[in-house]
Amino acid sequence: MTHPVINLEKVWKIYKVGTKEVTALQGLSLKIEKGKFVSIQGPSGSGKSTAMNMVGCLDKPSKGRILLDGKDISQMSESRLAQIRGKKIGFIFQSFNLIPTLTAMENITLPMMFQGIPQDERIKRAKMLLEKVDLGDRLGHKPTELSGGQQQRVAIARALVNDPEVILADEPTGNLDSKTGVNVMEFLKKLHTEDNKTIVMVTHDPSLSRFADRVVYILDGKLTDKSKT
Amino acid sequence: MISKENFSYATKNLMNRKLRSALTIISIFVGISTIFIFVSFGLGLFTYINDISSDIGTDKLIVQARGIGAPGSDDTFRLEESDIETLEKTRGVENAAAMAFTGAEVEKGDQTKYVYVVSLPVEDKDDLDLSMSLMTVDLMEGRNLDKGDDSRVVLGYRYTLENGVFRKPSGLGDKFTINDQDFTIVGIFEEIGNPSDDSNIYITEDAYKELTEDDNINYAMILAQVDDVSRIEEIRERAKKNMRKDRGLEEGKEDFFIQSAAQLIESFAIVLNIVVGFIILIAVISVVVSAINTANTMFTSILERTKEIGILKAIGAQNMEILTVFLLESSILGFLAGIIGIIVGVSLSYMGGVILDNLGWGFLKPSFPLVLFIGCLVFATLVGTISGMIPAFNASRQKPVDSLRYE
């Protein structure tokens, strides 16, 4: 059996909203093996984004354990989690989340800066990745000077710079037209098949299931029976 | 850790908010400039006071009558010839000399002016030397008054200037009238540095008596030289006692006061300290207000960039890096405000000094020691850093998941 790169063990997330408690995850258990392309699907408010935040070390569970590469990260300090995020996880967001004041090149070099990679190496890697996403001629452009598809490709390049084990994509096509969306998905699929990257994608679009080799459904903070394991 | 990248990222962020950064810088630099200007003038004044104190010397006592208005102008309390004699008889006093002054009408050509006429004790060379020690300046041209120079005068510096006192500059040998008496100029003093003193006319005591039609001069002050500086306080008490006895006054009800030159200088310095200190306090308050303004700018900036902070954290930025970036931004604002504040401060102080000098207030010279530049720059940068601390700390503590959700 393949070694699970991500293992969520009975994870609960309870938020306090005023005096009320809202349970976003109810004992969610999920194993994601290395090299898999997993799509997490579910309706709005189902808890899929919360699950994604847990997997991405952006949030800590109220109960349960999260193991990344066998290590329990659920109780790690914020600084340690930041290090793990920078090294092991690459994020792709629905709204691209590029820093608007920086150029494409600077946006891509930023995660490497936080890992202490020397400047020469940063520039070399950033150029190589921008070539890979067909934006070699857009190095000095700011996000506002790029189309949605181009911005998402810059975001994908940024997610790849530190050669992470896991790529987390949160509604990666949500802000793109269908044609550009398909291009982005094909690029992610290529990363999965050619570079053997583990990809976890959150989406509410069932049509994107075809790109994944495993689809899990979340409803009311739990996996449903429909989930293919 | 402050890296080149953090610095360049912080600078970029400030450049993207040019107007807001500029307004924050202005609010800090105005305070810094004000502090710089007043400290530079304050230091200049202290230097001037120190110069005077070394010119007058520490071995002198200054006696003045208590009264209203300028010394010697109030006739209720007088200092007279008999007081000089009392002082001279006091043990420890080597010599005593007095100066008087009065307003007089001076005519030259078709112009009439009202200026102060000062009496000099020319009958005794030692008395003249003693009173001259109070002048702090030397003669620029000609000679000082001598015995029998009752129709001669020595003038202040401003008489040599065109439109200084009279339209035309005066020189040695020129004549003019004081209260309808004719006088000839035999000497001119160097510049003292304030228009009033530099417009004085100096005459002999005999000429003064004739001018005021009073044989008993009401002196503005008596200067007494002591024989032992280390016992000056003891001599001062003795002189006070003698004068009190001579004038038939009870202790504590003296109508005169005696100060050592050092005390006089010290009392000037205290007043100066209070005035300069008060103005600097106001300037510091304005800097504190601008620090609050800077904190507000940083809070606003952090609120606007909540999502950006979330993104930075998502891609691996640690709390310390976020803290560094925001602290750098506020420190850069403070540093730039310091640089501009110093440039503006130096320019205004320098220009102010030149203008005051042209107006005859040459003693009001700003002083620019290196420590003032460094102090203002460090202070401004610290103001920026401290005002950015709480906002930067808040920014660094934001949860990435909440920040990313912020719209």
Tell me what you see in this structure.
The complex is a heterodimer of chains A (229) and B (407). Chain A is α/β, with parallel strands linked by helices. Chain A has one domain: Rossmann fold. Chain A has six helices and ten strands. Chain A has helices at residues 48-55, 78-88, 104-114, 119-132, 148-160, 178-195, and strands spanning 4-17, 20-33, 37-41, 63-68, 71-72, 89-92, 166-170, 198-203, 214-219, 222-223. In chain A, strand 7 (166-170), helix 6 and strand 8 form a beta-alpha-beta unit. In chain A, helix 3 (104-114) packs across helix 4 and helix 3 (104-114) packs parallel to helix 5 (148-160). The longest helix of chain A is centred in the C-terminal third of the chain and has 18 residues, at 178-195. Chain A is globular, with a radius of gyration of 17 Å. The relative contact order of chain A is 0.20. The mean pLDDT of chain A is 89. With 407 residues, chain B is of the alpha+beta class. Chain B folds into two domains: 4-52 and 266-405, no CATH class; 58-260, no CATH class. Helices cover 54% and strands 16% of the residues of chain B. In chain B, the strands form two sheets. In chain B, strands 3-4-9-6-8-7 form a six-stranded mixed β-barrel. In chain B, a hairpin with a 2-residue loop joins strand 7 (175-178) and strand 8. The mean pLDDT of chain B is 88. At the A-B interface, helix 2 and helix 3 of A face helix 1, helix 8, helix 9 and helix 11 of B.
